[in-house]
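Structural prep section.
Before we set up the soaks we want a predicted structure of the protein with S-adenosylmethionine in place, mainly to decide which crystallisation condition to try first. Input record follows.
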Amino acid sequence: MEKRDDEGDEIDLQLHLAHSARMYDYYLGGTTNFAADREAAGQAIAVFPSARVAARANRAFMHRSTRLLAEQGITQFLDIGTGIPTSPNLHEVAQGVNPHARVLYVDNDPIVLAHAQALLLSSPKGRTVYLQADVADPAAILTSPELEQAIDLRAPVALSLIALLHFVPGDEDASRIVEHLKEALAPGSALVISHGTPDFGPAEAERITQVYAAAGTEVRMRTREEVEHFFDGWYLLDPGLCPTHRWRPEGVELEIADAQVAAYAGVAVKQ
Ligand SMILES: C[S@@+](CC[C@H](N)C(=O)[O-])C[C@H]1O[C@@H](n2cnc3c(N)ncnc32)[C@H](O)[C@@H]1O
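Run finished without errors. Recording the tokens verbatim:
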């Protein structure tokens, strides 16, 4: 399968290897996944049967948190670890509240770049821009021409790192990245995080970590305290850090057990 980026260069999709974005797409019932992804995702589901429930709950958290921040007046969104487009995407939610909302999407997986067209269908009044970059280099993201096209760092930004940081295994690396990004944002900005945790089922978390490692992706599940640390110095909005489906639920989410999502979510504001 040959794909080309906007410059016409061929994109190497590494279809023989499982990729986290395509495994996640499989959990969500998408079609942008291949044999190696489906095999690894099948193994993940075998050790963590609620992987699909967890993925959908995570996606629903993204919808609720984005809607809230757009309703509270944030007009700029920086979404790192965007994932393969799955409607409604973040810009559709934000622009559903405010058609002028502007979004910079960032991901390091070539498959997301290959499908970025769906992320670029902005409302005419707003703007969406896509940048292929690694969160490990936050300075490159913050100084990119793509960021400049979508975001004014002097005004509040909603930074979402949703289901991303557990793919940054080093604790010091993860803290350095998050602090660098937080530092660059203006007061009134928001930090949105969801993150896998072993707290509700240590044995399942260990097994799922092993499945991802065998597929070539290092995962670091973090405890409540470790995830809360990412928000240091910012004001956590109610209800604080909680399992993804319990963050301002809208009804159906509450039928899910905490162990089925195995992830925390929170939203904090820079004062
Ligand atoms: C589980 S998906 C989450 C997608 C979306 N944020 C959501 O929650 O629905 C994780 C995404 O993070 C991306 N990712 C993983 N490591 C990354 C890194 N170092 N830099 C940028 N993106 C990364 C993957 O390619 C994948 O698209």
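Observations: Residues 20-21, 24, 58-59, 62, 80-83, 107-109, 112, 134-136, 162-164, 167 surround S-adenosylmethionine (CB under 6 Å).
Flagged for discussion at group meeting.
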